[in-house]
Amino acid sequence: MAFALAPTAQQDGYRLEAFETIGSTNAHALEQARAGDPGRLWVVSRRQESGRGRRGRAWETPAGNLAATLLLVDCCPLSLAATLGFVAGLALSDALKAVAPVLIGADASEDRNSRTSFQLKWPNDVLADGSKLAGILLESAMLSERRFAVAIGIGVNVVAHPTDVPYPATSLAALGSDATAETLFLALSDAWMQAERAWNGGRGLESIRRAWLTRAAGLGSEVAVKVEGEVVRGIFETIDEDCRFVVRDIHGGTRRIAAGDVHFGAVASAAAV
Is 57 helix (H, G, I), strand (E, B) or coil? Predict the structure, then answer.
């Protein structure tokens, strides 16, 4: 099966560029924007050789996993561009549920209604059964004094996951799913349409925030957040109207965090120091 856009995406003017191998889907998308591409372009590849995660970390995409980037140009006020990561998280979790309703966990055989729980970890990860399944990376570029482009990069462990990382990771195959990168992308391009309509150029951000919180990993639990060398500890209370991470400390005060690395539960006491 080849990569293809969902009919809903085609009808709304989205386009697709698919590759067998690429250096970085995000880099290619931003290059296209600088060359004059109007946006609403999906870039997908069967293999990505030099992908990036947050803070410049490497994100490998071996053949069979999904590397996809959505390029948008002048889609909203620049101040709201960062919230697109939350829109993408909702769309991706919907797509995952559509293609991979697989049983997981030791007790799954006893409860046939038990299904994979895809949770959203602030700010940009998707977890399955508590392990990292996918990551989202937003990168932007100014095209002129008033115009800008945003590349929404999405990487999903479909057939393989890293084992040499300091956190639990998994793949759809490891969870028992036979979904492919192609079927997942088809569902993703469709799910994006609904999430984008709800976001509505940033005007529907509050509905996106509420929906995101219903799928939030670690909500109400002990948390530690690394912020520029500092470790902020407390309880994950919510995300605010700007999608900042809100931590309540032991004294009852709150801290609003725009960027940082989050650790939950027992890991919050050990790994975040």
Answer: coil
